[in-house]
Design brief:
Layout lengths: L4 E4 L8 H15 L3 E4 L31 H11 L4 E4 L2 E2 L5 H14 L4 E6 L4 H7 L7 H16 L4 E4 L4 E5 L11 E3 L4 H10 L2 E2 L6 H17 L7 E2 L1 E4 L1 E2 L13 E2 L1 H12 L6 E4 L7 H17 L3
Parallel strand pairs: 1-2, 1-14, 2-3, 3-5, 4-5, 5-8, 8-9, 9-10, 11-14, 12-13
Antiparallel strand pairs: 6-7
Helix pairs in contact: 1-2, 1-9, 2-3, 3-5, 7-8, 8-9
């Protein structure tokens, strides 16, 4: 049976927010993509305090100079579609007031008829933390834990009551409530993060950077789940940050999901063989406009299905 495929929505500076998000969302749903996704970047530091992903010397991509707000983008997609699930991959938890984010996600879930997936994480950019975080970078894990607590409280039955380091909710009615329990997905970049994922989340959200690496990571997550006695399956949705090229790239040092449509699909087939059940393809970074993004996304989807993925 074909695996579900998701598509990253256009958020970067070459796209028109008011026009392109709805157009791409409708086209992706019509082709067969089962989910639509957004990511979060709030600024482009010049000069940067640190390299991309915290890697010294790694340049930030030029497209990050302007990235649309993830929840605004997802709301536009929700209004333009009726079936596709709507996910965040990911929201940087410490850049949001927990109570307000929990309410925004619940409202979007109600408005979309129960289609929201909350992918949450802690981020890595010191510059973003300096500009927008609710707590210092060193407390990022504690902020994510509190956000998970607040979401559980706000999305649960009234009266809602909670006391944490950042949030105090006196007994109150808080609505609207989600249309159904919103699935929460987390990364697992350390043992502590993996334990949080196993204990508190519905699923895991890795980045697909090589089939063998993904298989090893997936096995580690399952091992921790077994050790901690988790009695329900761990969902998985792997993000593939693709870089499209009209011509095939040479095999020497080609990175996964970089290249032509055929090469991207070849990598998808290899990664799907790991047993990971769902993938997000983010193709927006190297397509010039919405028309090209729709064309490439359609070609990738059709070729993937022809390849049995």
């Amino acid at each position: 049976m074909p695996i579900p495929l998701g598509l990253g929505l256009p958020q970067m500076k070459q796209y028109d927010l008011g026009r392109d998000v709805a157009d791409v969302a409708r086209a992706a749903e019509a082709v067969g993509y089962e989910s639509l996704w957004v990511f979060e970047r709030v600024l482009f530091p010049e000069p940067a305090t640190q390299g991309l992903y915290g890697v010294p010397g790694l340049a930030w991509p030029d497209q990050y100079r302007s990235v649309t707000d993830p929840l605004v983008t997802l709301t536009l997609a929700a209004a333009a579609t009726g079936r596709a699930r709507l996910g965040t991959s990911i929201l940087v938890a410490p850049l949001h007031v927990p109570f307000q984010l929990a309410r925004s996600l619940a409202s979007l879930d109600v408005a979309s008829g129960g289609r929201v997936i909350a992918g949450l994480g802690t981020g890595w950019s010191l510059d973003e933390y300096a500009a927008a975080s609710v707590a210092p970078f060193e407390k990022r894990g504690a902020v994510l834990d509190e956000l998970l607590d607040v979401c559980a409280a706000v999305w649960g039955p009234d009266p809602v009551s909670y006391k944490g380091d950042l949030t105090t909710i006196a007994p109150a009615e808080v609505g609207p409530k989600p249309a159904r329990p919103i699935p929460v997905f987390l990364p697992a970049n350390s043992l502590r993060a993996t334990r949080r994922l196993v204990d508190r989340a519905d699923g895991w959200m890795p980045v697909a950077m090589g089939a063998s690496q993904l298989a090893e990571q997936w096995q580690r997550v399952r091992d921790v789940a077994a050790e901690r006695g988790r009695d329900r399956p761990v969902g998985v949705c792997a993000r593939a940050n693709a870089r499209y090229s009209a011509e095939p790239l040479g095999s020497r040092d080609r990175k996964p999901f970089h290249g032509s449509v055929a090469q991207i699909v070849e990598d998808l087939v290899a990664h799907a063989a790991t047993g990971v059940p769902e993938f997000i393809l983010d193709l927006q970074g190297t397509t010039r406009d919405a028309a090209e993004l729709i064309g490439v996304a359609t070609a990738v989807y059709e070729a993937a299905r022809a390849a049995g993925v």
